[in-house]
Every structure is written in C-alpha cells, then in structure tokens.
Amino acid sequence: MNSIENWNETIAHLPGASILQTQEWAQIKSAYGWEPIPRVWKSPQGELLAAAMILRRRFQLRGIALPVSLLYVPRGPLLNWSDKALAVRVIADLEGLAKTQKALFIKIDPEVVLGWGVPGREEARENPDGQWVQSQLNLRGWQYAVEQIQFRNTAILDLSGDEEGWLTRMKPKTRYNLRLAERKGVKIRQASEHDLGLLYRMYAETSVRDGFIIRPESYYRQVWSTFMQKGMAYPLIAEVEGEAVAGLVLFVFAGRAWYLYGMSRDVHREKMPNYLLQWEAMRLARQLGAREYDLWGAPEVFDESDSMWGVFRFKEGLGAQVVRTLGAWDYPVAPLGYRLFTRVIPRLLDVMRWRARRKLRREVSV
C-alpha cells in the first residue's frame, strides 16, 4: 500500500491500533518535515496481518536535502506480537527498508507489553511474549533508544461495566474528591474550536508550572482542529462560576480513548476540578464506543524519585492499571553516524528546550 487513503479503516482492527498511527497524524507530521510511508503485510491469501505508518525525515544542510534520513514508527508497527514468525518478518522488513532508504536508523515504539501492574506488588504480572520480542530485538542489533519520544509505560482505565463499578475501582480519596468537585460547583462543558486559544493558554501555564516544554500554539491548533473535524478529538473544559480552570483533549479511535493533553490553572485547585474532568471524559469516551481509556504516561521507575510519581498517583486513584511496554528501540544502519547522532542531538535538544522554556515563561508572565 503506497497511499494513506482509507488507512484508518485498514488498521482499525489490528492489535494496538493507535491514534498515532492514523492518517490524520501522518498528515499533520507531513507539515513539519516528515514524509509518511505506509506499509502493510498480508498473508498469501491476502489477509491483512500487520501495518505500519512510517515517518521519514531527511536531513538538511542550509536548506539543501542530504541523501541521509531517519525513520520513525510512532506507536507501531501494529500486529499480533505473539505470532513469532510474523514478528520476525515485520522486523526484518523494517530493517531492510531502513537500509534502502539510506537512513541512519529506524526507531519503533510499538505497544509490546512487557508486563502489567507495578513491579514488586502482588498484582504485577509479566508477559512472556513481550520478553521474547525484546530478546529478538537485542539479538538482531537493535538498541534501546536514548531518545524516548513517547512514554514507555502507561495507565489504562477499563471502561467496561457500569459507572458504579468504575467508582468501586477508584481509591476512596478519589471518590471523595470527585464528589467534592460536584458539591463545590465545578461544571464540565465540551469545548469548540473557538476555545482552542483558551486551551493553549492553560496548557502553556501548565508547562511553565510543571517544567515541561511545549510547541508553538499553531501546532496544537492544527492537531486539535484536525482531529475534532474528523470526530476523533473532544476537548473538555472545567469551569467554576464561568471561569475556565482546567481542560483536556480526549482522542478516540478504534474502540480506544487517549488523554494526550491536559491543562490546568492555579485558580480554584482546592475544588478538585481535574477529578470531575476525568470522570466526564470517561463517560464521554464510552459513549463514543471506547472500551478502554489510556491516561498516557506512567513512571519509568515506580517510586517517589520519578518526576511522574504525583501524576501517576492521581491516575492510579482513578482505578487505572499499569501497563509496562517495550519502549522505543533503534536499529542503526550506519553505526558510526548513529553514535554521533545520539551524542550530539540530545545536547542540542537540551539547549533548544532551555531556550523554549525561557521564552514561554516570558510569554505566560505577560
């Protein structure tokens, strides 16, 4: 398949079908220097077995394209990873593609589950199929990526059962805060495209407070608007007496929902608006056909030393289950160039992030 026409319908029934593998995500990335390369794998009888929306980025020097590139498969490839013959076939084909494309390397970060639950706790379980995939990547010369683009681990809410069951799975403190938000007059409304500027301003305020870097407003407007127009994104805003205090953007595709963007302000935090916001997101997700809700991100290390620990405790309180995955892995086609790239790029990114953080602080403080 050399076209992304009808791509979403093609991948919707594959295991792990992700919002980051959709044609909309590829089209957005194409506006920022990435070229989509869709690939599918079929059986001899023509049955679809696997797919990957691969993104290629060419290196440039002073505006001149160089004959070198990198490849990235966000949250892919998509396949049944317990089918070992198919897994080897897909991995080998991606290695071959990286070589023919003269890429420095190809990066994948598929949803290959290594285990469920917090390590060390009674409920923790390991997944032998995931462990096998990891061993195969090691044997074939893949390397655990220095630059992890997406979160390696996440927390997922099961949306089956009734709402009473959801409440039962929550921590007592979470249920208390949810009811507190209702008593204190927090209201949740679905936002429109007219609210995207407001959502970005809250997101910028959140990034400065919590110390993470975000992109320019134009990028988020394009992402949110594109998916909203396709009925795949639904922004929600929490208000207190008509004043916006928090928000999120809910993404839905192929029976799954994702919490990719969340934002909050420093006003009325004692009224616990984020609890009611997530509750309404859960309800909306199921109305839209989602069977599970990915809260997008859990700690790399499950203790208080991890910067995500506080956010994780909030997600855990909602009743979410930890899913530990493979993370991003790189296959170096040109080992020397890859080593140089992975040493230099992180340093450049640190400088760029420092500059972006300083610029954003100035803008938010105005």
Automatic annotation (TrEMBL):
| One GO-annotated biological process of the protein | regulation of cell shape
Annotated Pfam families = FemAB (PF02388)
Gene Ontology molecular function terms on file = acyltransferase activity, transferring groups other than amino-acyl groups; aminoacyltransferase activity
Q: Which InterPro entries match?
A: Acyl_CoA_acyltransferase (IPR016181), FEMABX (IPR003447), GNAT_dom (IPR000182), PG_Glycine_Bridge_Synth (IPR050644)
Which key words tag this protein in UniProt? Acyltransferase, Cell shape, Cell wall biogenesis/degradation, Peptidoglycan synthesis, Transferase
Top-rank taxon: Bacteria
What positions does the domain N-acetyltransferase occupy? 186-343
Q: Which PANTHER family match?
A: LIPID II:GLYCINE GLYCYLTRANSFERASE
Tell me the protein family, please.
Belongs to the FemABX family.
* Protein name from the UniProt record: FemAB family protein
Species for this entry:
Anaerolinea thermophila (strain DSM 14523 / JCM 11388 / NBRC 100420 / UNI-1)
Print the organism lineage: Bacteria, Bacillati, Chloroflexota, Anaerolineae, Anaerolineales
